[in-house]
Amino acid sequence: MDDPLRHHGDSEAREAALDFAVNVYPGPRPDWLDTALRASLDEVGVYPSAEKAQRAVAAHHRRPFDNVLVTAGAAEAFTLIARLRPWSRPVVVHPQFTEPHAALEQAGHRVRSVVLPPPFALNPELIPDDADLVIIGNPTNPTGALHPAEVIRSLLKPGRVVVVDEAFMDCDPDESESLAGLRVAGLVVIRSLTKHWGIPGIRAGYLVGDAMVVAGLALNQAPWSVGTTAAAAVLACTSPEAVTEGRRRAEEIRDWREHLEKGLADLGVHHLPSTASFVLAQVGDGVHARLRTAGIAVRRADTFPGLDDSWVRIAVRPEDVTDQLLTALAGL
Ligand SMILES: Cc1ncc(COP(=O)(O)O)c(C=O)c1O
User: Fold this and answer.
1) Same domain membership, residue 307 and residue 196
2) Residues 67, 71, 77, CA angle at the centre, nearest 5°?
3) CA-closest candidate to residue 167, choices 159, 157, 175
4) Which of the ends of the chain has fewer CB neighbours closer than 10 A, N or C?
5) What does the buried/exposed string (b/e) look like for 200-217 if buried means 16 or more CB atoms within 10 Å of the residue's CB?
6) pLDDT tens for residues 251-261?
7) Tell me: the pLDDT tens digits for 236-252?
8) Hey, is 179 helix, strand or coil?
9) Domain residues for 16?
10) Burial (CB count within 10 angstroms: exposed 0-12, middle 13-18, buried 19+), residue 310
11) What mean pLDDT do residues 199-203 have?
């Protein structure tokens, strides 16, 4: 395997009969989204502008326009943050999605990992006092842990930027612990639109936060990095009809997840409570490979700091698909 920090689940799903490795919503795209994406092709004769999308995100989170930066997926935001300042003590809270860590290293920073012990609840006392950047996921990939907004908020202090990766917050119907609406100095919240809306091939995401920090991040963005189709996706996915459908999807994901969790419990497989579109399960050594031989891809978890190969991350799927995985697990 190449750099474990750069490993992504999509490489495990290739040619698998059943994909439980990638956390993209498995249903069809809504008609209104397809219509918006197709219509965007009529506008590709001019250079793209994300202004309308930026305005829509600002309205969606009830924030001023200058609190928003539309990005080429959440992934671009990590690179922008890594390059924002000569961070003296950047901290990444693990286990979590490793791209922010990799982006910081790529930008030449020495990253300090804070590895939470199971069950991976955030303990603010573990964050070094002198950290000037803290990056945390909420709910966290791959643990599914949803940290209380108040606890994350307690990490804020003068001279520190706290970045919350809320790429999976739209899996929680109430988004109860989201900090996207909170206007305080030093806070940046990153959102992805690619998973909930099933469009990872369109690099659509955004960040909201402290206007001063957002302005600095915008300066580092490559010109026109958000293409016309991505901007159209952001606009469509923050519309009122998207809010309704987004909630319906979150409720569906919750029901599917409960089915998976119950099935794992019935098999006696230790797993963690999740608020996201995946469940972290301790299936035991070698199970990942045996499932793969059976044509079933689950996401290996040993590439995440703080986890080993007894764990796998299982994407939430409709009940009948989940049952195929549970049957395979029972037969191993
Ligand atoms: C936790 C987390 N944040 C961000 C991303 C990147 O999202 P995007 O597709 O919007 O770049 C991913 C992708 O897997 C992820 O798992």
Assistant:
1) no
2) 85
3) 175
4) N
5) bebbbbbbbbbeebbebb
6) 999 999 999 99
7) 999 999 999 999 999 99
8) coil
9) 4-27+242-330
10) middle
11) 98
Q: Looking at residue 229, which CATH number applies to its domain?
A: 3.40.640.10
Q: Which residue's structure tokens are 């908020």?
A: 153
Pocket of ligand 1 (CB under 6 A): 73-75, 97, 137, 141, 165, 167, 192, 194, 200, 205
Atom of ligand 1 nearest to the CA of 167: 3
Residues whose CB is less than 8 angstroms from the CB of residue 284 and which lie 6 or more positions away in sequence, other chains included = 310
Mean pLDDT of the chain: 97
| Residue that has been written with the tokens 């990490």 in this structure | 155
DSSP 9: T
**Cα three-residue angle 282-278-306, rounded to 5 degrees:** 50
Residue found by looking up tokens 């608020």 in the block: 275
| Residue range 78-134, pLDDT digits in tens | 999 999 999 999 999 999 999 999 999 999 999 999 999 999 999 999 999 999 999
Closest approach atom of ligand 1 to CA 193:
10
What was the pLDDT predicted at 1?
61
- Residue spans of beta strands (DSSP E) within the chain: 18-20, 68-72, 90-94, 112-115, 133-137, 161-165, 187-192, 204-209, 270-271, 278-282, 296-300, 311-315
144: alpha, beta or left, given left = phi > 0 and alpha = psi -120 to 50? left
- Span from the CA of 319 to the centroid of ligand 1 (angstroms): 25
Return d(Cα 227, Cα 230) in angstroms, integer: 5
* Cβ–Cβ under 8 Å, residues 100 and 110: no
Q: Is residue 22 domain-shared with residue 43, that is, in the same domain? A: no
Residue 111 pLDDT: 98
Rounded distance from Cα 22 to ligand 1 centre (Å):
11
Residue 23 sits at the vertex; the CA angle it makes with 17 and 25, to the nearest 5 degrees, is 90
User: Taking a C-beta distance cutoff of 8 angstroms, is the pair 113, 101 a contact?
Assistant: yes
Distance 167 CA to ligand 1 centre (A): 6
